[in-house]
Amino acid sequence: MAESKAATTSTVQMDDGINLRAKVFGEDLKSTKPLLVALHGAPGLSTLAEPEAAFTFLSDIFRVLVFDARGSGGSDLTGPYTHDRWIKDIEILRKWAGAEKFILAGGSYGGFIALDYAVLHGDKLLGLILRDTWANGVLGMMTALGNILTDDRLHVDVARQIRLWSGNLRDDKDFEEAIAEIIPIYAPPEEHLLKTSAKDNDESKAFEGMDERAAFNSATQNAAFSVNVPRFDVRQQLKNIKAPTLVIVGRHDYVTPVEFSQEIANGIPRSRLEIFEHSGHNPASDETEKYRQVILDFLRTEVI
User: Fold this and answer.
1) CATH of span 7-303
2) Interval 83-108: pLDDT, tens
3) Rounded distance between C-alpha atoms, residue 59 and residue 42, angstroms
């Protein structure tokens, strides 16, 4: 994990009174640097720690805004937990940060939100960065579950995994146990671990955004996967996304496999696909040096 630079931490109130925890790296809100907003994945579990680790290396060039989505981390655990509401929260944060246009980044579930935002508010985007995500919820969800149930590294409770991926968890403890038994699938196979990043790939860190602040909120996960994901399908809208787009994926990602990123890159006109040959679900930790170079090259050639 990259060492975080100094940040301004704020509590930002949304229009419905809900408070979100946000951090801004790269000077204060009055800075003239362009804004990059990075979304975390795993609703109800992941926190701003994930995008903080992945994007704060850019804070010399950008103001980097990361936040806990409502229902996750240090933000209020109050719904609705819908894509429309999460997108509206991004819009409020954009205005709070004083940016007319910005770069949006999202990984895994954060990529779903980023894609939906790009479809609805593409005129606000200077650029789009998508990491290990998919464009169709039902197909993606069923593929992930199928890979989990057939992975020799895992020994799972099948019924519990079905509850997890269909959004029917019994409680927060059920959520915690379901995640604990699938952590190894998020990392690349052992023979592909790079020595420079192996410290970030032990089982306690393989899951994105899991740190000492992680807390399990099954209500957020249940809403996301019982209501939002089955309705999520932007495949026919990809051609309408005009912002320059970088699509990143790990070759050994069995949750959001390479073919889904290829589909996204093929659909978005101004897109570039980068496959990380030694990565699982999170190239930012699996191949940190290459990941940073790819991000910088994209931003310098397509955005800045």
Assistant:
1) 3.40.50.1820
2) 999 999 999 999 999 999 999 999 99
3) 24
